[in-house]
TrEMBL record:
<dbReference type="Pfam" id="PF10277">
    <property type="entry name" value="Frag1"/>
</dbReference>
<dbReference type="InterPro" id="IPR019402">
    <property type="entry name" value="CWH43_N"/>
</dbReference>
<feature type="transmembrane region" description="Helical">
    <location>
        <begin position="157"/>
        <end position="178"/>
    </location>
</feature>
<keyword id="KW-0472">Membrane</keyword>
<dbReference type="GO" id="GO:0010506">
    <property type="term" value="P:regulation of autophagy"/>
</dbReference>
<feature type="transmembrane region" description="Helical">
    <location>
        <begin position="12"/>
        <end position="31"/>
    </location>
</feature>
<feature type="transmembrane region" description="Helical">
    <location>
        <begin position="52"/>
        <end position="71"/>
    </location>
</feature>
<dbReference type="GO" id="GO:0012505">
    <property type="term" value="C:endomembrane system"/>
</dbReference>
<dbReference type="InterPro" id="IPR050911">
    <property type="entry name" value="DRAM/TMEM150_Autophagy_Mod"/>
</dbReference>
<keyword id="KW-1133">Transmembrane helix</keyword>
<protein>
    <submittedName>
        <fullName>DNA damage-regulated autophagy modulator protein 1</fullName>
    </submittedName>
</protein>
<keyword id="KW-0812">Transmembrane</keyword>
<comment type="similarity">
    <text>Belongs to the DRAM/TMEM150 family.</text>
</comment>
<feature type="domain" description="CWH43-like N-terminal">
    <location>
        <begin position="2"/>
        <end position="182"/>
    </location>
</feature>
<dbReference type="GO" id="GO:0005764">
    <property type="term" value="C:lysosome"/>
</dbReference>
<feature type="transmembrane region" description="Helical">
    <location>
        <begin position="83"/>
        <end position="103"/>
    </location>
</feature>
<feature type="transmembrane region" description="Helical">
    <location>
        <begin position="115"/>
        <end position="137"/>
    </location>
</feature>
Length: 195
């Protein structure tokens, strides 16, 4: 995943786009948090602290994305790897918690079909996350431009496949929020004070 943005000028574009994605992730997670809080007012289905915990875990993942974006894989590998671990680990926990919250809100706020889709994406992401870490730990060198005859190539390839699986899992998971967000409207309140 990070191999696509390690050399200039791609590294600048990669970092910029990941930072934008992290910002959009924060906005999406915050709107989801507010939506659940509002739904909870009319029909209680989840504790507010659980909703807040889910938001905090998601925000940690976005911070991890920022670290990945700003500390390239070849420049500062240890910081980059910590950021990736935080981003992917927190992301997997976030989508799993959101899947559970979705089930709790059925059938009033979600359909079981959407809940099953969310849980399937969460399970696939969790399953891919574990070998991603295991294979990444087997790689003895940090480099770009791998060839199939090199030592650790298979570990690198398998880790990259799992990493992309988890990343696309996050994208598809957020796409399941579209129907939920269609009921959201932005109200701006203006008050006129007369002296």
């Amino acid at each position: 995943f990070s191999d696509t943005g390690t050399k200039p000028p791609e590294s600048g574009v990669f970092g910029f786009m990941i930072n934008i994605s992290a910002l959009l992730g924060v906005i999406t997670m915050y709107i989801r948090y507010l939506l659940i809080e509002k739904q909870n007012e009319s029909s209680y289905f989840i504790g507010s602290s659980c909703n807040m915990f889910s938001l905090c875990v998601g925000l940690m993942g976005c911070i991890g994305m920022g670290i990945v974006a700003n500390f390239q894989e070849l420049s500062v590998p240890s910081v980059h790897d910590i950021g990736a671990l935080v981003a992917f680990g927190s992301g997997v926990v976030y989508i799993t918690l959101q899947s559970i919250i979705s089930y709790k809100s059925c059938p009033q706020w979600n359909t079981y079909f959407v809940c099953h889709i969310r849980m399937a994406i969460s399970v696939i992401s969790c399953i891919a996350f574990i070998p991603m870490i295991v294979f990444a730990l087997q790689i003895s060198m940090t480099k770009i431009d791998w060839t199939p005859d090199e030592k650790d190539y298979t570990y690198h390839l398998m880790s990259a496949i799992c990493e992309w699986t988890v990343a696309f899992g996050f994208i598809f998971f957020f796409l399941t929020f579209i129907r939920d967000f269609q009921v959201v409207s932005l109200r701006i309140s203006t008050e006129i004070h007369e002296d």
